[in-house]
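Morning!

This is the sequence you dropped in the shared folder:
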Amino acid sequence: MPILTRRNLLKASAIAGAYGVGLGIAGKFAGKAAAAEPLTLKTAKIEANLTDGGTTRSVLTYGNAGMPPVVRMKKGEPFAARLINGIDDPTTIHWHGIRLPNNMDGVPFLTQPYVYTGDHFDYAFTPPDAGTFWYHPHCNTLEQMGHGMTGVIVVENPKDPAFDSEVVLNLRDWRLGGDGQFIAQFRPRDAAKSGTYGTVRTANWQQEPQYDAPSGGLVRLRIAITDVTRIYSFRMDGAEATVIAIDGNPVPQRFPLDLLQLGPGQRLELAVRIPDSEGAIVKLEDIKGTNPKVLATLRA
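The structure's back. Tokens below.
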């Protein structure tokens, strides 16, 4: 029987904490989530149509169907996911903005080991807060995130007011050349400015996508900025929009979206009153800089 010393006690505590069996909130959350049916998220390298310049090669995603799926959870209910690594580089998943056990946070060498090619890692936790969040790797992020591995998380609250419909937008930049292929993700001279911007801007991997919404209805618009550089100045044209949450947190007092500036990793939730006239167009715009852009439209 080993002698109980301070060193042995600290060593045993560290091992217990690393595997989520220690006391406290992490162990409680991980245990509650153990019974959830796991969602499979398998990383893959695919081709995708992101521009008119041709099919883009070496796009990285989860699954084989294009953009990473919107992952839906419910506040206070166990969630589980299995990450299977199908790309050449090691990877992880970081659940950005969600309060969860440290050993589920997806930071290699700090909270979990690398997930190497062909291996898997099981995540299990219970989200304590509702809101809009996002997920991404914490490994070689310049390439993995820059090539597409960023997805949106929606944590639903069954007590929320009902909306007539919901639209989720994953906003991101791509560094693509005229032929539609990836170019250098980083330029050293941009480090002294505001970062290296993309050349193609998309919402849900499309340029200016359009979504139908009920005439006269109330739409919950969830927006996540999932790239690493661009700052947006949001404006809504053609409808009344009210800010109801920022970064997953309900705002203390709702206010009209006149002009709101948000940066990388941030999220925004809007309540948009769609016009009564069928066929009317509502535009979500980014008016920052010298090249204003329509990000997406809603059609009554």
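Headline: Residues 1-33 have pLDDT under 50 and may be disordered.

More detail when I'm at my desk.
O.
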